[in-house]
User: What shape does this take?
Amino acid sequence: MPIQEIFFYLFSVIMVTAATLVISVRNPVYSILFLILTFFSAAALWIMLEAEFLGIVLVLVYVGAVMVLFLFVIMMLNINQSRVNEGFVKNLPLGIGVALVMLAEVLMVLWYKSQTGTDTYPLPVPHEQGYSNTAEIGERLFTAYLWPFEIAGIVLLVAIVAAIALSLRHREGVKTQSIPLQVSTEKRDRLEVIDMPVEHVENN
Amino acid sequence: MDAILEFAWLLIRIVLYTLLPLILLVAYYTYAERRVIGAMQARIGPNRIGPWGLFQPFADVIKLLLKEIILPKEANRYLFLIAPILSIAPAFAVWAVVPVGEGMVWADLNAGVIYILALSSMGVYGIILAGWASNSKYALLGAMRSAAQVVSYEIAMGFSLLGVLVLAGSLNLQEIVNAQAGGMLDWYWLPLLPMFAIYIIAGLAETNRAPFDMAEGESEIVAGFHVEYAGAAFAVFFLAEYANMILISALTAIFFFGGWLSPFEGWAFLGDSWLRQSSVFWFMGKLAFFMFNFLWIRATFPRYRYDQVMRLGWKVFIPITMVWVLVAAMFVFNGIVVRGA
Assistant: This one.
């Protein structure tokens, strides 16, 4: 078995196991950690497919930023596990429905493949050594896909502005510190040197 | 069989050429820190063990390793023990793509810069998990401060590297260094001066060093996230912090100070002297300078207040870096700085 296949199965097994554990472990912090492991294995698989830029960005964005915030929130909330489990029976029919739809989709893909034969999907040919995946993505993004790329950026910007606008509220009677005022404060604003005659205390 | 032997030999070389020197450097960095800050504060510092106290780091390591690792009763024991490993592993793994000299790098990645950003953002998990698993209020407070701070300053750091990428036109660290050839006025600290300053300051915040050591904050939250750790587990956190400081120094040298390039490259009157040759010694010199910088800053500035740290990151650094990315693009567009040369 070539070394690529060994690594592929290794990462796949880790990924599927970790993904299963995300939804089956009881402690939400463990769930997050297994989700991180899932992302990592996915990134490893992408790097094996010569998509090293996407693989590393997956780690950078999801593991490095999004999951940190998830962990942050879960640590702050101190979730009560019994209340989380309460919804299980109630949402079970919906969950089974979604699972069946996904199963049907997977089976359709398999059926389609069995009809057309796997030969219609040739194995990807590895690129020669000087090939830069990163440069290729940059070129495509800023030529062929410029508009979708820019529109996605605007949509994200709108989402940020909307999130801030929703959470920003001015409350009456709240004392806040004005940092420019604090920084620009000078010695004479805070300190007063008083001329005071020396008091003589009688020692006994 | 040959493949396995080759792999084993590669591992041995990685340990010999990178890990061992790094750990020794960390050991003597802690010694240098105590001596340098001692000198700055008109004290002596450690001077008892060996000549001038030179064996002090080994005494410290032996002491820490012989101590008991205390597991708090209510702590989550798995995460408590995994956390130090999670903080040291990324600090070492980043060195895979850091070139110390021409061609002296383990993996010459085309996406080297984002690899560095991705892995250095992993280090925060060690801190968060240590804080959470300790089941102690000080540790949790330190972990939350640190998480918020590291995530915020990562953005400023990433944006300041964006300027370097615009000028160098590459994500490969060797190409970034080679793009700065031509002497010290061609290095990127000059066209990217605000970003250079921001990178150094954000580096302090990323490594949780003074004046941004909110995660530890001895006078406020005892010792922050590692308050419950003792012995070897604490030593690993210590090692990770210093390894990260060395890493940030090395990266500053590579991105803004021309890596292994000589500062006098273009000075023809020096003749063929070694001063004009690029060599790994120039890199070491720059590394030592930026490492000293960390100690100098620690001895000089008082700790920031927490809300001011966050304000500085979000409201000052990120806007400045955003503007300077545009300025750097204008430099390239108008030919003031030739891209990649």
